[in-house]
Amino acid sequence: MTLYQKALGDFRKGYMGFATLAIIGQSCFGSVAVMYILQNGTSFGQMIQLAAVVIACMILNGSILSQQKPKLVFDLLLVSILVSFVMIVLNTIFI
């Protein structure tokens, strides 16, 4: 059993609690990414990065609120975390 399968199984078992934690966690992590993006200015490139983070977070929130299947919500949570993490690293190290 892979780590992904185990985490997905746990997420399915405790979906209501994990969905709540996902909203809180990814919103906080997304806001940290937005802070790092905006510290480097407000150029067109930063606005594209900002839009990517906001869209990823809002898609996850929308999927939870519209009661999508747990696998979809879990996958969107991973995408949202990945997008926020990439933007944090990009704006901390490279820009």
From the structure above, extract its key features.
single chain, 95 residues, mainly alpha, elongated
Query: What is the terminal separation in angstroms?
Result: 39 Å
Topology pattern, helix = H, strand = E: HHHH
Number of domains: 1
Integer average pLDDT: 95
Radius of gyration: 14 Å
Report the principal-axis shape.
elongated
Low-confidence stretches: none
Q: What class do helices, strands and sheet pairing give?
A: mainly alpha
Strand content is under 5%
Largest sheet: none
Number of β-strand runs: 0
Helix content: over 70%
Count every helix, treating DSSP H or I runs of 4 or more residues as helices: 4
Can you walk me through this structure?
The protein is mostly helical and 95 residues long. The protein is 87% helix and 0% strand.
Mind sketching the topology for me?
Elements: H1 3-13, H2 15-39, H3 44-65, H4 70-94
Helix pairs in contact: 2-3, 2-4, 3-4
In short:
With 95 residues, this protein is mainly α. Helices cover 87% and strands 0% of the residues. The longest helix has 25 residues, at 15-39.
